[in-house]
């Protein structure tokens, strides 16, 4: 039961004791995630596209999908997918040129809605953010009421729908926002968290990637309940520094505060392979795919960076990075791919094989009001 409104709670359910950080204030966290943001903006601004499968970015021959409408997702089309594959999966897919300045404009309108309720806003990208509404400007006691009001105001002012997740920590709020998309709202109360996490499939845990989830399944870990059975020492041995994170989130423990206006220093993506890569051709092909994911994330953040880095982790867990700083900011995927290829050669191959590759963009340039905005573009 609740000790009082100023402390976290101890719940005892079955074999597990969920101790959610006693002696810390109970937070009310909302995670807002816009629904198919880029694609929804295009459908809103161009009514003839409503109800049709569209992909923002690329074309039938080349490029990469930056975002897909829900109509396109029914055919398996998704962001960071090569456009040629997307076109094969959905022959009547409509490709639309991205307009990042427009997406940034609407993102600012959404941010203004958030600020009517709290200044504790942590943007994750143009289309999602955490809000701490424990203490809020209207003085409302219910985070669920606030989330409903925010969703309604976003719809009224932009014509777009958002999904909201509400809980006592960031991890669970983000988990909740994905439950009833699109236009969803889901709450995970503290007293419900234990049972919810125990039953949740391991691949749905934010921070556990596809490759890690598959490895966990081979170790008999299919749900949060299975994960809890592993000791902290065991998880740390198997997964290194991430082991403590897995241990905590399976128990609903997440102490991270909402950090307003955090300064992002880099955007990256990486992938761990089931089998170590031994040939440079494989490495180049995988880096192309990872670069596409990186650029998709980069474009959502509305940032402007000029340093490109590749990360290589070998079978013996030794790791290297290579970087190149461009004369101009990265503005399209082809430019990013060229930089990645410059950093990739036969000398990367070692007898241990490569178990992980990553691509990152950093050295972000601060934009002033006097600067003319840069139009990010994808391949067409």
Automatic annotation (TrEMBL):
Q: Does the keyword DNA-binding apply?
A: yes
Single GO MF descriptor = DNA-directed DNA polymerase activity
What is catalyzed by this enzyme? DNA(n) + a 2'-deoxyribonucleoside 5'-triphosphate = DNA(n+1) + diphosphate
Q: InterPro entries of this UniProt entry? A: DNA/RNA_pol_sf (IPR043502), DNA_pol_Y-fam_lit_finger_sf (IPR036775), DNA_pol_Y-fam_little_finger (IPR017961), DNA_polymerase-Y (IPR050116), DNApol_IV (IPR022880), Rev_trsase/Diguanyl_cyclase (IPR043128), UmuC (IPR001126)
Q: Which Pfam families does its entry note? A: IMS, IMS_C
**Family per similarity comment:** Belongs to the DNA polymerase type-Y family.
Task: List the PANTHER family.
Answer: DNA POLYMERASE KAPPA, DNA REPAIR POLYMERASE UMUC / TRANSFERASE FAMILY MEMBER
In Swiss-Prot or TrEMBL terms, this protein is called DNA polymerase IV
